[in-house]
Amino acid sequence: MTQVAFHIGIDDRVGYACRLVRKVLASGAKALVLADAATLRRLDEALWVSEAAGFTPHAMAGAPTTIAARSPALLAEQVPENLASDAVLINMTGSVQNDPHSRERLIELVSGEEFDIQAARQRWKTYKQRGFSLVNHDVRHGSTMKTPDSG
Fold first, then answer.
1. What is the pTM of this model?
2. Domain spans of the chain, in order of start
3. 72, 89 Cβ separation under 8 angstroms
4. How do residues 77-111 score in pLDDT, each as one tens digit?
5. Which of 1, 89, 121, 125 reaches 20 to 30 Å from 149, CA-CA?
């Protein structure tokens, strides 16, 4: 069953995504980050030289197949059809993704802005209707909560 973790209250979504991608890669998993083109450009740049970690290996969707296949992190505007389902999906788009794959983990990045929180609540309802396990991680308060029926 897919676990969807909502990380809510993020001030710097690009910086947070950089740290999260590094954490996912350090765990041995692959990462797929979905965002709009402008956010992807900022994230691409940040992953080259973010903090003391330096370069974080990644590729943009549309890169030559040999490069994209060897990259542990892929940045895209939508889920590529030919991407393996073992990547952790990090969603920065603000909408539910039509992912043709069954993933173990999906992470929703949500700012502290009211419009973003309201949109996240709608995505939460959609994921709940699909029977996914849901976790709310409020980064402002450091709290985590699972829904009672999510196991």
1. 0.88
2. 3-150
3. no
4. 988 876 667 889 999 999 997 775 678 899 999 99
5. 89
